[in-house]
Design the sequence.
């Protein structure tokens, strides 16, 4: 019983140090690659043992906030899209309706991105969107590259939103949304729909962004994602 209680206390203490060390990283505004103080110094700073600090460092390394290298100082690291993707994938692996949940998340993310893009996009941003739409239109309807080009077009919209968190979230779910796109596209085609409807929806989104009309961009993205939702449900309800 004493051993169990000690383990619980130690675990709780290490979680407290995780929080304290996380705040330290934020307050010091350490850039990626900046070293953190030695373990013993951190133990003295936080009033805990060295093993507890090591546990906290291991936890933060697992979260993508620190990088540990054998024989070198532990350094700060900024979490990126790969870390976020891993979190999403781990969580949604347990959900039976993961594809539909990702589509809901995509709707929230991309509708907001379109609205921001309409307020912030430059002429160069719009030119890139139109170039990617042209490339997308030129691909065969049954081409695997069609979905990759679709992702690239939507990423251009996210880039124009000028928000790092939006872009990181888009990159994080890109691989996960690829599966949803495959299912949705199959359902769309099997329902007798054509690529022209989707091309027109893409063009309408870009037109709204170019016009600098956030409300219209939001509505057009909603309309386009309704198409994706139709395809998903058409396939999943089979």
Sequence:
């Amino acid at each position: 019983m004493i051993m169990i209680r000690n383990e619980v206390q130690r675990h709780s203490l290490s979680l407290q140090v995780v929080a304290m060390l996380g705040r330290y990283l934020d307050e010091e505004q350490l850039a990626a690659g900046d070293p953190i103080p030695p373990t013993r110094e951190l133990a003295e700073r936080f009033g805990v043992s060295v093993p507890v600090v090591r546990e906290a460092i291991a936890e933060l390394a697992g979260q993508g906030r620190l990088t540990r290298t054998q024989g070198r100082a532990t350094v700060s690291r900024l979490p990126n899209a790969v870390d976020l993707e891993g979190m999403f994938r781990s969580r949604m692996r347990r959900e039976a309706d993961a594809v539909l949940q990702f589509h809901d998340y995509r709707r929230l993310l991309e509708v907001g991105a379109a609205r921001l893009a309409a307020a912030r996009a430059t002429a160069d941003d719009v030119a890139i969107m139109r170039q990617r739409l042209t490339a997308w239109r030129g691909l065969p309807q049954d081409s695997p590259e069609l979905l990759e080009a679709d992702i690239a077009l939507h990423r251009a919209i996210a880039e124009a939103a000028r928000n790092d968190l939006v872009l990181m979230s888009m990159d994080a779910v890109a691989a996960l949304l690829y599966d949803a796109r495959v299912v949705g596209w199959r359902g769309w085609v099997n329902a007798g729909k054509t690529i022209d409807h989707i091309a027109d929806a893409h063009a309408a989104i870009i037109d709204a962004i170019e016009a600098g009309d956030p409300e219209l961009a939001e509505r057009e993205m909603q309309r386009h994602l309704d198409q994706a939702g139709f395809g998903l449900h058409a396939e999943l309800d089979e």
User: Anything to note?
Assistant: The domain at 2-76 is CATH 1.10.10.10 (Arc Repressor Mutant, subunit A). Residues 1-9 have pLDDT under 50 and may be disordered.
